[in-house]
Amino acid sequence: MRHRLTVLVLIGLVLLVAAGGATAEETPRVIVLGFDGVDDVLTRKWMEEGHLPNLSRLAKMGSYRALDVTNPAQSPVSWAAFATGTNPGKTGIFDFLKRPPGTYDAQMGLAKKTMSSEFTPQAGMRWVLRAAPAAVVAIVVLLLAWIFARRKPAWFPVGLALGLLLGIGTGFLFQKVHIPLPWFEKFTPISAIPDRLPTAVNLRQGPTFWQTLGKSGVRCTVVEAPTSFPAESADGGRVLSGLGVPDIGGTFGLYFVISNDPRVPDKTEMGAIIRREDPDENGLVKTWVRGPENFLLPVSRQSELRGRIRTMKDRLKLSLGNEKRDVYKRLCERERELYPSIPVEIQLMPGDEPKAVIRVQGQEQTIALDGWSDFFTFEFELNELLKPSGIARFHLKQCDEKTYTVILGQINWNPKRIPPNVPITSPREWAAELSDDEALGYFDTLGWACVTGALKDEMMSEAAFLAHTNLLWDARVRKTRHLLAKDDWDCFVSVLTETDRVQHMMWRLIDEKSPRYDAKLAEKFGDSILEFYQKMDGLVGEVMDEYLDENTVLFVCSDHGFQSFRRGVNLNTWLVRNGLMKLKEQGGALSLEDLFDPDVKMFKNVDWSGTKAYSMGLGKIYINLKGREPGGIVEPGDYARICEEIRTGLMQLKDDDGTQVVKAIYLRDEIYAGNQVENAEDLILGFNAGYRVGWQTTLGGAPPATIEDNTQKWSGDHCSFDPSIVKGIVFCSRPISVDDPNIMDFGPTILSLMGVAKNPGMDGKVILEAGR
Ligand SMILES: [Zn+2]
Fold first, then answer.
1. How far does the centroid of ligand 1 lie from the alpha carbon of residue 37, in Å?
2. Hey, which of 28, 432, 663, 730 has its CA 20 to 30 A from 190?
3. H or E element, residue 399
4. pLDDT at 373 (0 to 100)
């Protein structure tokens, strides 16, 4: 009996211990902080020097490793692999730009613009609403005919016929014709909504790990998710799209320059929209900004207007004096027809403390020289019902007695008024909820909101660029902090991108060998990259102190590292010189803006009948393959031989000082596996330190020199560098059990931590020991 009791007590104790063990192994919460472009080598160096105390603390607590990233080491490619746990051969994201098979056209690599009827009323509903006025007309006429026919019955059939005819006529009018008159649109608003609205399709294939978690009931909050536009639904979770969200014009983000300074060029590589306006005698400048293309215009008219605008822009560059003014005026007229416009007034106040008062649609703000305004809202009007709303900030660059320059940053979609065809959040209303929250307010929604383009085009000072980048960073930190504190998540992912942007623009100030090194600027701004690494370190420390406990796992990661971009390699020029590409004539330079003009053809100077290979995008070569390319000449049987010929040739390419330019060249089948491989480029370049693909090559151009100095302020890069020299970082609060963690490993690891089965087809591995 006594013995039995002891056994029972023992069993009880065992059960208790087991229950205790079960508590310790409770599903943990996961936080991932992603910092775009944070480099392994710099991080290690600055940790050793004691600049990043919180990251050092995290490494000591768990692990720190260099992170293998995708090939190519580009943000869209790498973050897509992060999100899905698969290689680019499955995500289908290979570059910022892509060439759809069967064409020579460049397309955005992340999302595709399309017209969709998804967001407009159902066809049946539309028919009923449009048919209603017809029915009313028919009934009224019939009624009159009936009253009239009581006296003259013989006339009734005539009334009947008339009623039917007028009814059908009205129906036809309302069904087919949209009359852009306010009263008409108010009377029958359905006619103001077109059958289809422009929207986007995400080109990234495969589910994200937060979608898989959501299906298992894990609550995910994902902030600034890259390659997630349109925002995918996450079953009970919330997603705010990041990289990939366009500006209000559907582009990467075009900015405006309003100026009377003759030094401002007519066209810039990053596609600035130039407004040349002279102030009146009181220093008042009247100008206008444009919104999205008016897709309600007939397609042929849109195309015609685009053509005229292009011609006039080319003429503008060649003309002078009065003729230039005249061409500019006509250019503005055409632009205002193609794009809805909003008047802007700038009252210049030069003097000891120069400033400007800016007025837009009843809003007014004063900005000091070198300063940025708060957000202005811009309500463009396509018709009575369709009024896309944007937000943007002004910057006063220059304001003296003679000249002035005002910059307007890219116009973001207004988060408070996101139309259904631009789904930047899931659930859809989350964007407005976030923005209506007093702690957050308006925030940039554009995927690439940083004004790198304006600094690259030399339209802005370093100080102004950094001031704006700080605004962006602060807003993202505010958002991250605020959403973490809501405590309504099991898995939290936030990606902050300013670390990447600052390195792109400021690398020249930490590299004395950069063609754009400037000792004076370096003295002033040489610490800016370190400062952003320290800001990252600060946020990591804050999250560790507030949220890290034994039941929470923290990951800190990046999508790639960085290198100095000193020399540009013009791959098309190399192909021409080696008899692999034939030009009709030396081509004119293209700008980023041209990419968004569907009528501008890339490679218009290429003679395809003499071309075996061509380059486009960031360090990619395509074979002009028979049966695939529209003017293909390379027989499929010769494909492998031509690839090898290019590989051997480029591996021997030496710079003037004898440096080997290319580290490795990869064939797509060597590095990718999956059902998307056929959309990949044929050869993928991996340049050595200091060398990147040349600017005009990315847009398909072939300038005279094969290798030339990169004279741009955009001086740090990772695209087209061999992935082995641009590794990212991964920190974890728990020990990492492998030596070669990869960007694809996050999905499988987080799913395993949370006890959710891995998606079939995931290529990544689990990098934490089981049970830790
Ligand atoms: Zn980058």
1. 6
2. 432
3. strand 394-399
4. 98
In this structure, the strands spanning 63-67 and 728-732 are: antiparallel
Q: Which residue has the higher pLDDT, 149 or 715?
A: 715
Residue with tokens 């504190």: 485
Is a pLDDT exceeding 50 seen at residue 19? no
Confidence grade of residue 609 (pLDDT, cut at 50, 70, 90):
very high
Query: Dihedral of CA 579/583/587/593: which sign?
Result: negative
How many angstroms separate the alpha carbon of residue 692 from the centre of ligand 1? Answer: 13
SS3 710: coil
Chain position carrying tokens 């962006």: 472
For residue 530, the surrounding DSSP H or E stretch is helix 528-547
Q: Work out the number of other CB atoms within 10 angstroms of the CB of residue 660.
A: 13
d(CA 182, CA 176): 17
Cis previous bond, 427, omega within 30: yes
Q: Give the C-alpha separation, 108 to 352, whole Å.
A: 46
Residue 714, CA distances (Å) to 509, 703, 718 in order: 11, 19, 12
User: Tokens 């027809």 correspond to what residue?
Assistant: 337
Burial class for 738, CB neighbours closer than 10 Å (0-12, 13-18, 19+): middle
Give the Cβ contact number of residue 84 at 10 Å.
Answer: 29
Which residue did the predictor score with more confidence, 719 or 116?
719
Which pLDDT score, from 0 to 100, does residue 106 have?
Answer: 82
182 pLDDT band (50/70/90 cuts)? Answer: low
Rounded to whole angstroms, what are the CA distances from 739 to 38, 59, 455?
19, 14, 39
Tell me the CA–centroid distance for residue 504 and ligand 1, in Å: 6
Instruction: Please state, in angstroms and as integers, the Cα–Cα distance from residue 164 to each residue in 46, 139, 367, following that order.
Output: 82, 9, 63
* Chain segment 258-314, per-residue pLDDT in tens: 999 999 998 888 889 999 999 999 999 999 999 999 888 888 888 899 999 988 888
CA of 559 to the centre of ligand 1 (A): 9
> Residue 29 has which token pair?
């919460």
The strand pair at 620-623 and 613-615 is best described as antiparallel
The percent of residues above 90 in pLDDT, for the chain, comes to 69
In one-letter notation, the amino acid at residue 266 is D
Give the helix/strand (H/E) hosting 223.
strand 220-225
Q: How far away, in angstroms, is 501 Cα from ligand 1 center?
A: 6
Contact status, residue 694 vs residue 716, Cβ threshold 8 Å: no
167, with CB counted inside 10 A (0-12, 13-18, 19+), is buried
- E strand or H helix at 131: helix 123-149
User: At residue 122, does pLDDT exceed 70?
Assistant: no
Residue 233 has what DSSP assignment?
Answer: P
CA of 374 to the centre of ligand 1 (A): 26
Please give the C-alpha separations between residue 190 and each of 123, 317, 388, 551, in angstroms, as whole numbers.
11, 44, 17, 54
CA–CA distance, 688 with 662 (Å, rounded to integer): 5
Query: Ligand 1 centre from 716 Cα, in Å?
Result: 8
Cβ neighbors of 652 (< 8 A, separation 6 or more) are none
What six digits make up the tokens of 182?
């306010």
Alpha-carbon distance of 767 to 747, in angstroms, equals 10
> What is the rounded end-to-end Cα distance, in angstroms, of the chain?
42
